[in-house]
Amino acid sequence: MCRWLAAYTGKPILLERALYAPAHSLIDQSLHSELGAEATNGDGFGVGWYDDQTTPGVFKSIEPAWNDQNLRELAAHVKSNLFLAHIRAAIGSAVQQTNCHPFRHGRWLFMHNGYVANLPEVKRDLALAVDESLYPEIAGQADTELLFYLALTLGLEDDPPNAVAQAIGLVEAAGERKGVKFPFQGTIATTDGERIWAFRYSSEGKSRSLFFTGHVPTLRKLYPEREIFQEVTDDARVIVSEPMGDLPGAWNEVPESSYGVVGQGDDRLATFKVKHPAKAVAFSAPV
Amino acid sequence: MCRWLAAYTGKPILLERALYAPAHSLIDQSLHSELGAEATNGDGFGVGWYDDQTTPGVFKSIEPAWNDQNLRELAAHVKSNLFLAHIRAAIGSAVQQTNCHPFRHGRWLFMHNGYVANLPEVKRDLALAVDESLYPEIAGQADTELLFYLALTLGLEDDPPNAVAQAIGLVEAAGERKGVKFPFQGTIATTDGERIWAFRYSSEGKSRSLFFTGHVPTLRKLYPEREIFQEVTDDARVIVSEPMGDLPGAWNEVPESSYGVVGQGDDRLATFKVKHPAKAVAFSAPV
Amino acid sequence: MCRWLAAYTGKPILLERALYAPAHSLIDQSLHSELGAEATNGDGFGVGWYDDQTTPGVFKSIEPAWNDQNLRELAAHVKSNLFLAHIRAAIGSAVQQTNCHPFRHGRWLFMHNGYVANLPEVKRDLALAVDESLYPEIAGQADTELLFYLALTLGLEDDPPNAVAQAIGLVEAAGERKGVKFPFQGTIATTDGERIWAFRYSSEGKSRSLFFTGHVPTLRKLYPEREIFQEVTDDARVIVSEPMGDLPGAWNEVPESSYGVVGQGDDRLATFKVKHPAKAVAFSAPV
Amino acid sequence: MCRWLAAYTGKPILLERALYAPAHSLIDQSLHSELGAEATNGDGFGVGWYDDQTTPGVFKSIEPAWNDQNLRELAAHVKSNLFLAHIRAAIGSAVQQTNCHPFRHGRWLFMHNGYVANLPEVKRDLALAVDESLYPEIAGQADTELLFYLALTLGLEDDPPNAVAQAIGLVEAAGERKGVKFPFQGTIATTDGERIWAFRYSSEGKSRSLFFTGHVPTLRKLYPEREIFQEVTDDARVIVSEPMGDLPGAWNEVPESSYGVVGQGDDRLATFKVKHPAKAVAFSAPV
């Protein structure tokens, strides 16, 4: 029920370069979305960033991002070589910081633009499938936080595509048990601070949009007047829900049912296929 | 920089009947304005209501109105025979409760949909023109609060149309001194709990919209299926920035440079003419 | 981890009469507790009140109660014949509205001054014991909300003392499984809008304090100068964590391991005994 | 009406080292003050820090500091060689971010632990004395913000002790005109990012407390087991309202009617004497 910008990787830059600087920026988009499911996204936001500390920093607020003075201050003073930003349009769950993305566990961040359909009907089954040691960390009521803890339970830290495939598989299995037609919708970004994995998938096969920037040296030639392309390094990447700025040729769409990896020299696009649990295994006790 | 709904007068009803009930309600409008200057109005809101207490109650919040749970609770439990509601789209001043409308002084409430142009340039002159005994009551930084205290200084409690005409006159005089072309824009509603005065005026002569409901018995005949018209009394009136619901014939536009009064059997529309201060008098010391 | 004032029953009065009026009022206590476990209780608050609507109103805020302007407004304008108020001192769970008491389900309100010990260790077992149809209503992460839904699962709406006895029994059983010495601490108030049940119990047998007002006609004679006793009816009752005001003889302590009922002519004190679940039954799957 | 910790200068350290790390830290003090005028300081807070950007960053919140998750995140990730922190206990003015210290103008920060007595009576006179070009920057209603703009009007950026002496002189003159016995109380810290000036003064001669750390090499010898003294450089200084930690010999009290300067090799203590405006000049028009 949201929108997100995931995520910059490259030379450390001030967060404001990505959040506020370009025309049609993420913050502008929070007021006037063109491609998003909701025109306005004013129900809180979050940013997560990596620096030389052990765990990433996370700043969340329930005020609309466009007028949040603290976000402006933070973005004008914090530099990072990898950061995520997310803006919510809540439907159903409370506007509170514990429901704002990105969610954090250790060095991992996770965020989502979409929803688990009919959440009230499947929530308990999904919560039961979360590992007992992780369960107490769940702080809010967002479908995405639950999805994150399912993915952690299923090995996110070792093999993100496999864990996300299984977590969505569980969501689809739980939905099907309740007769939900299309249990999952959305795009997901997750990172360990070194690489970012970004997924585009929906049960219906009509997923929310997802874009990534092209090759920086090419962009520099195409748009020599754009400072930002001179400033960032060749390997910089930005992944977004909707293109920012107005630069034909700058943005590539992630295809339906695909995922991409960027960072640490790892830069590829692959097919994403959900893995359903063996019927006998899912939701049986003890999980 | 805002939108408002001013205001219901009539038989006591739950606030929610006016704020949430109709399709295209005020709360809907806060997300998707059609006539307003800004598409989204998510920078706080306020309601003011009268009951059997000495002064009206005022509830203000800096969260977007559409997801504020406390507003929903209040609106579902508080009944009033006269209330105002206002939703902000801030430009320039902070999103804080002391900048939310309606403003209160004793039994009076005051709110505004518009702006004082070039406020930073004229603010000090206008603040100086506020009566010394009223000055310490100014709690925020909103142009509207300043306008309210100017109007109080100039006799709002005795003759609202005259005081508002002089207050806007001062704003225009202050603006002209600084070379501001069109110093004032907007619609204003003010009330003492018995009658509501609503003004539509701008220096440019292109004022923001303002509507009031027609004759209730006529509306009952036109829309026999609408519960709300059966529920309210014959003398009920609603004044709004934009028509709510989708009822042709229900809404009359307040003409440019006019004001209306409703409540206590007083129900009329008149021409509004700004009164400029004598040049020698305005902004001279001692104020 | 909190303090509460539960609750006025009697003739409808403005909430402010109970919240702000007396010296050493609830709001004062939130800043300077004398008997409470924490000296300062500044982590949000809530009030719940009954009127002629179907469900009670609930107002919650994460600002310290002592400076919350909206609470002052509400309390000065809302009258009720039965209301609860609660002030938090959070330890461990987030300061957010969904963690503020009182919690509501239909016509029922529930609040608690105390804690479930070692919550992270027992949370999952307790969540599993909540009825599947109630589970999706859990909106926050507070131990008290979980306890409320356990009590609802176990028949709170039919027999409050029995349901609370069983719910605390489950908490103690879950704690014992994890080697927790004293799994439960606290006082609880719950109401259906007609009667209030107030419990004082802790596994350790050293429960937080709980008081109720004496017989109003007696209080009137003892303190003829106190307006409040003239104003309220003979059957008025106030239940509190700590005595308010400085009136010897006004407050009776609820004994350890007891509960009281007030309202609707029902006015008694009884022994409270926790009911542990049959060992074979608790926490077995499927719940 | 507040407390503050001003301010660290020295080698860049994480803010959390000063805000959270020591026993009896600033954050602890916000809950349990021993020397402060108020026992609890829960009405918002602010931090201001310098880095390699043009202007300092400022983070403000109206939640109690002790449970603010965003402050914890910021403090765990932001390093600075000079920063200020302030915690409020509001009396009279609203709990809103624009009333939180430190206040900022260009590269300057300013904060205050104390009050202008009888503010409503003198506020207008003081506001009139603010330079017309600075006046529109005043965003809140705090006495301290007004004092800051008076000091800026009177040359803070060129000669801080002289400007503060004149600003307090104006406050005293304005108070005397209204018959206020002791118009000013408090300690003040102001900085340009290179040096910190800290003042202790009150009209009554009974000023709030102010302390600064001693010579780091001496502290290292006295407390060899304290990591913090090993970590910071020889020239590090901390100025506080109340001593943090429990280290006899670590803290020196700033004497009554004195000010100190630290930073950039400038390290001295001097007598502070208020400069009253010429009687004919103050508060005459035009200011």
Give your account of this protein's structure.
Four copies of one chain form a homotetramer. By secondary structure, the first copy, chain A, is α+β, with helices and mostly antiparallel strands. Chain A is 25% helix and 27% strand. A six-stranded antiparallel sheet of chain A has the order 5-6-7-8-12-13. A four-stranded antiparallel sheet of chain A has the order 1-4-2-3. The first copy, chain A, is globular. Chain A starts with a strand and ends in a 16-residue tail after the last strand. The model of chain A has no long low-confidence stretch (mean pLDDT 85). Chains in contact: A-B, A-C, A-D, B-C, B-D, C-D. At the B-C interface, strand 3 and helix 3 of B face strand 3 and helix 3 of C.
Quick structural summary:
The structure is a homotetramer of 287-residue chains. With 287 residues, chain A is of the alpha+beta class. Chain A contains eight helices and 13 strands.
Task: Provide keyphrases for this structure.
287 residues; homotetramer; 6-stranded antiparallel β-sheet; alpha+beta; globular; 8 helices; 4-stranded antiparallel β-sheet; 27% strand; 13 strands
Number of H- or I-type helical stretches of chain A: 8
The rounded distance between the terminal residues' Cα atoms of chain A is 29 Å
Structure class of chain A: alpha+beta
Report on the biggest sheet of chain A: 6 strands, antiparallel
Stretches of chain A where pLDDT is under 50 for at least 5 consecutive residues are none
Secondary structure: number of strands of chain A: 13
Largest Cβ-defined interface = A-C, 21 and 21 residues
Mean pLDDT of chain A: 85
Q: Please state how the strands of the largest beta sheet of chain A are arranged side by side.
A: 5-6-7-8-12-13
Order of helices and strands of chain A: EHHEEHEEEHHHEEEHHEEEE
